[in-house]
């Protein structure tokens, strides 16, 4: 790996097209030009790739000082790895960095990084692979060890994790900030089993839906099939007879394998707060919690959710059959609106929903090739062989095929789905999708299998690896994260 001051050469043409690259290059070579030791500059994102706290009170000798407002204007153009580095150069630059961060003035859109762990790096270390610099960094995270947790999502710079007692935390891998989310026992379907001292020993998981029942689709006595015009069964309608499943009991470290699926963190900028949305079993139902809440709030009556998004105070959620619902969480009574009904001719293994920068709501299908997969082997491999993009016509309530992303890219996986512009992120490849593994069987199992991870050309349906061979481990499942220095309000 090249060190910080040995970064790849940026062409003059690239610098002319993308002035931000020039700023980055200046800060990469300026300390060297001033005969300054590279050791000082690499305190945070170091030569060894490990992240360390920046030093304070250092000096660059006779280096001319710029006014802090000018420094802040320049620093605001940098991505976080470069920003943290320049904040380590001297006390004046550190002050500008702190002011920019603490005042909330730093809002530069970040190029996503791939977050993963490595057994050789240590139990508390997370690794970040930078798509801009084509290199990896190591970050030490707070207890409990990141490799002992399940990763169930990332949004806006935050990881959503589940520890070995099935409790959830938010973790910012850059700042090290950690926030405890409401206890798992406050989820509608979970009840604690405690000992005489009141300590939770096990969890009881109920399988009811909003109707307080669950029907077996395979039992014709309790359901009737609903066919589409192609005579394909699309859903089952319950008959009069109710069927209840008995709750299951799990050890404290086992519940997370049966309950948690995917989670999202959405800032409520108008309130200076945030919302965490959680897709969970049974049947991938939806719950949410706000900053400061003591419990999770259940959002019935629908099931089978796969992805979520948030815009203008509305929480959007899409089901495996393509239904899109919008929950208005702003009032004392939660209102739900049907944005799109069930999609016909559904052919996908994963489904995503993303708000595009130009305003459209996109429905994305991902199709995985598993014909050659041997599910009895830990070495079986799945591979993405097609990604289809549809625009949601919210007026006509239908899908329109979207042929080309032009100068935009997608990020798909077990994280918040993203659509970004290559004008803002010139290191990304236009009309491509960057994807990581999110196949259900892989989230909690097949820990030693190679992950379905790479860059997908949306024009010719060809997939390429990010790095060959893949340097990252396979557990917990790697995911995309957009770095953030923002503090999270917990009240």
Automatic annotation (TrEMBL):
Sequence ranges assigned to domain F-box in this UniProt record: 60-109
Pfam (any one): F-box-like
InterPro entries associated with the record: F-box-like_dom_sf, F-box_dom, KIB1-4_b-propeller
SUPFAM superfamilies hit by this protein: F-box domain
Extent of the signal sequence: none
SMART domains linked: FBOX (SM00256)
Origin: domain of life: Eukaryota
Cross-referenced PANTHER family: F-BOX DOMAIN CONTAINING PROTEIN, EXPRESSED, F-BOX DOMAIN-CONTAINING PROTEIN
Protein name in the entry: F-box domain-containing protein
Organism expressing this protein natively: Urochloa decumbens
The organism's taxonomic lineage, starting at the top: Eukaryota, Viridiplantae, Streptophyta, Embryophyta, Tracheophyta
């Amino acid at each position: 790996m090249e060190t910080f001051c040995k970064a790849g050469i940026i062409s003059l043409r690239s610098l002319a097209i993308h002035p931000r690259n020039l700023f980055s290059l200046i800060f990469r070579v300026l300390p060297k030009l001033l005969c300054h030791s590279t050791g000082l500059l690499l305190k945070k994102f170091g030569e060894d790739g490990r992240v360390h706290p920046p030093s304070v009170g250092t000096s660059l000798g006779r280096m001319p000082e710029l006014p802090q407002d000018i420094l802040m204007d320049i620093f605001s153009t940098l991505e976080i790895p470069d920003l943290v580095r320049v904040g380590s150069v001297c006390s004046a630059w550190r002050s500008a960095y702190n002011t920019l961060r603490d005042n909330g003035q730093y809002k530069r859109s970040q190029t996503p990084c791939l977050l993963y762990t490595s057994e050789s790096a240590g139990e508390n270390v997370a690794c970040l692979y930078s798509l801009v610099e084509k290199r990896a960094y190591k970050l030490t995270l707070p207890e409990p060890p990141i490799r002992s947790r399940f990763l169930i999502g990332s949004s806006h710079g935050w990881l959503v994790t589940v520890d070995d007692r099935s409790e959830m935390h938010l973790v910012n891998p850059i700042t090290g900030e950690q926030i405890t989310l409401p206890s798992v026992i406050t989820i509608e379907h979970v009840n604690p089993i405690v000992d005489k001292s009141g300590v939770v020993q096990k969890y009881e998981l109920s399988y009811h839906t909003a109707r307080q029942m669950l029907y077996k689709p395979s039992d014709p006595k309790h359901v009737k099939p609903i066919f589409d015009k192609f005579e394909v069964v699309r859903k089952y309608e319950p008959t009069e007879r109710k069927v209840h499943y008995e709750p299951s009991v799990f050890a404290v470290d086992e519940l997370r394998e049966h309950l948690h699926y995917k989670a999202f963190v959405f800032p409520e900028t108008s309130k200076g707060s945030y919302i965490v949305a959680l897709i969970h079993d049974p049947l991938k139902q939806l719950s949410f919690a706000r900053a400061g809440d003591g419990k999770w709030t259940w959002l019935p009556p629908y099931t089978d959710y796969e992805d979520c998004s948030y815009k203008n105070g509305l929480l959007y959620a899409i089901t495996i059959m393509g239904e899109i619902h919008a929950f208005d969480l702003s009032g004392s009574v939660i209102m739900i609106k049907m944005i799109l009904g069930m999609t016909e001719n559904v052919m996908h293994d994963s489904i995503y929903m993303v708000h595009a920068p130009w305003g459209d709501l996109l429905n994305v299908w991902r199709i995985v090739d598993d014909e050659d997969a041997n599910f009895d082997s830990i070495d079986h491999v799945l591979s993405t062989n097609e990604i289809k993009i549809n625009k949601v016509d919210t007026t006509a309530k239908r899908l329109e095929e979207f042929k080309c992303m032009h100068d935009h890219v997608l990020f798909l996986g077990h994280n918040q789905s993203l659509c970004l512009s290559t004008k803002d992120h010139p290191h990304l490849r236009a009309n491509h999708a960057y994807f990581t593994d999110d196949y259900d069987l892989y989230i909690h199992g097949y820990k030693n299998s190679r992950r379905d991870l790479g860059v997908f050309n949306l024009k010719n349906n060809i997939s390429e690896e990010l790095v060959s061979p893949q340097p990252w481990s396979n557990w917990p499942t790697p995911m995309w994260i957009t770095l953030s220095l923002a503090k999270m309000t917990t009240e």
